Amino acid sequence: MNEEPRRRLAERQGRVVAALVAGGEVPEGFDAERMRVQAWSLVAKRRSVVARLRPDAAAAAGDDLAALFAAYAAERAEPPSGYRADADDFAAWLRRRARTRPAGSRLWWSRLLRR
C-alpha cells in the first residue's frame, strides 16, 4: 500500500489540530470563524475541567478565570497530556503571577482534616 496518501492525510490533520489547540493557521477549505469558535469551545471545556480538579486555582483566579485561563492556554504550543497535568500547570502559572487563593478561603480538601 502506498504510504503517501496516509502521510498527506496525517499532515492535513495535524494542521487542523494546530489551528484548534495551538493557534495555528486555519487550513485552506475550513471556515475561519467556525474554527475560532471551536477552538474557544475547547479552551472553555479545558477551563471547566481544570476548575473542577483545582478549585483552589479557580478561586485564586476569581472573576478573571476565563481571561486568565485563555491567556495561559494561548502561551502553550499544545495542552499537556491529561487534565490533571493541565490543572497543575495552570495553578503553577497563576502562582508565578502572584495569583493565589483569596485570604480566608480554605482548600477544598482541608475539611477532610478536621476531626
From TrEMBL:
Pfam families: SCO6045_C. InterPro entries: SCO6045-like_C. Residues 10-95 form the SCO6045-like C-terminal domain. It comes from the Bacteria. This is SCO6045-like C-terminal domain-containing protein. It comes from Nonomuraea ferruginea. The lineage of its organism: Bacteria, Bacillati, Actinomycetota, Actinomycetes, Streptosporangiales.
